[in-house]
Amino acid sequence: MKAVLSSIASAVLVTASWWVGWGLSPTLAESRKLADLLHGFAVQLPSTWTCKADGRVIWFTDGARFIVIRAAAQGQLHEVMRNWFWEHQALKTATGREEFTFRKHACGLIVLGDGLGFPYGLDPMAAVNFGQTGTNPDEYREVTVCLPGQNGVLLVTFLAPQKTARRDWLEMVDIVRTVEFVPPEKLVAWSVQTILDSETGGPLGTIHIPRGAEYRGQTVILGTQRQPAIFVRQGEFLFRRDNILVQSTVLQTQFGGSGTTILNINGASSLQPQPIFLTSVDDVEKLVLAIWQSETGQSWSVTKRRDIPASLMERAMFQQGAQMLNQAATVYGRSATTSMIKRELRAEAGTLVREAVLTGSLLLAQQADFISASQDCTASFSVMMSQFNRENEEHDRGVVVGIMASVRFSPHAVLALLQRISVENAALNRMVLEMVQEQEEFNSRMATAWTNALSDQTYARDPATGEIMRLYKHAWDESDFWRDPVWNTVLDGVEPGSKLEDVLRSEGWRRLDQSLEGFPEQWK
After folding, report:
1. Residue 286 per-residue DSSP state
2. For 223-371, where are the E strands, in sequence order?
3. Which residue of 32, 391, 470, 497 has the smallest Cβ count within 10 Å?
4. What's the CA gap between 258 and 336, in Å, rounded?
5. Residue 137 gets which letter from DSSP?
6. Sheet holding 57-61, edge to edge
7. How far, in Å, CA of 191 to CA of 508, rounded?
8. CA 446 to chain centroid
9. Which tens digit of pLDDT belongs to each residue from 76-135?
């Protein structure tokens, strides 16, 4: 197999030299060996790449570049080429600049494509992400090699943006050189399961799990978010995707301080007895370990950790989210900082091993005040965790790779879910803005009231004419103002229930309304 893929790599480099150029192949940086025991392949991938599998097709991507490998029996060449044709109908762009060149090579047929669109068939969710960030993908180039053999046909496709550098094309070739097929006797039988939208009951996506394993998969609600939660267990083997939301507030006054924390794990919220204030990724890691200890009754010791670089799309979406959060913080009169959470760790407890990837964001906000100061912490992240016995580590890790490679979400279902979220967020934003406006009006009225009280003044309103006057009066004086209906003379110091009040009322005088803060007519 390695020899065949090496010949593919050579063919691609020789034929595609008109845009790739030629040179020594770079070494894969920070790569790791992945074996998928569900779908039957192994590959050496850089840390920013992921693998996917669907039936007879496997592909690798870093979010922008794609490597697709198809294997079929000799008699299925027509079906493979037909699928390739229909996929390329979706790669056509509105410009009509698609160009294909077919060339024969010693190892088989080579197809060169230029002016292509983004391969949404391989990454349907990219359409949602592009829409969220308001960006458009670049045009793509392609090299496809068709290799007929004695027992079957191998079709390998390289897809990358037109501006991709030579080094990045060579990295794709290096990845292909590392691909191997797993012997059939080592494969794990699997079944297709559905990831449900818990609010509609409809399917959100699909996942492949080992046959006979316990499984649960559905969306959970965390505040205004919806996230998929996955649970797969078979003996000591465990694969899980947990979603965690931490919302903490600490209030500090000259009389002391207090704090509250709401912890939401997969939709289940609880008020914590002690405040949990997270300020860094290290704090997030400690919280995850504490949750694991509470869950298993065992202390987990981290033996390895590594911060993972984010992809271009992840960085774009994070920056957009950070900008929106900073704008919201400004509206609410607070200062805020955001940071990305993306860490890989390995922890052990006895003979059990847990490997996890933490992905999300951390928001810290604060508001200074001469009476009281507050600090807020909001950490929203997912934990993709796998557990296995150290003796079965290699086998179980291969099962995890297969599960993760199989997850596919429906863009239509996700867009419908996002639509529900956007409607809820719009209503929540309106409510919060109304609350902020009411608070600002209240603060303004209180400031006016204090100013009038300290300057021995108050506001008075004639109920008959609506006229508002600012009159002198001590703040502690409980007497009323009355007004002459003929000359509009204002008399102050009239005690409620007094004889003078009866006389004035009988003569047609009007008692004026009073307010230190003013009246609604003044606030509009």
Report:
1. H
2. 225-234, 237-253, 256-265, 268-271, 301-307, 335-349, 352-367
3. 497
4. 20
5. P
6. 50-54, 57-61, 66-73, 152-161, 140-148, 108-116, 99-105
7. 90
8. 41
9. 666 666 777 776 666 665 556 778 777 777 767 788 888 888 887 777 767 666 666 666
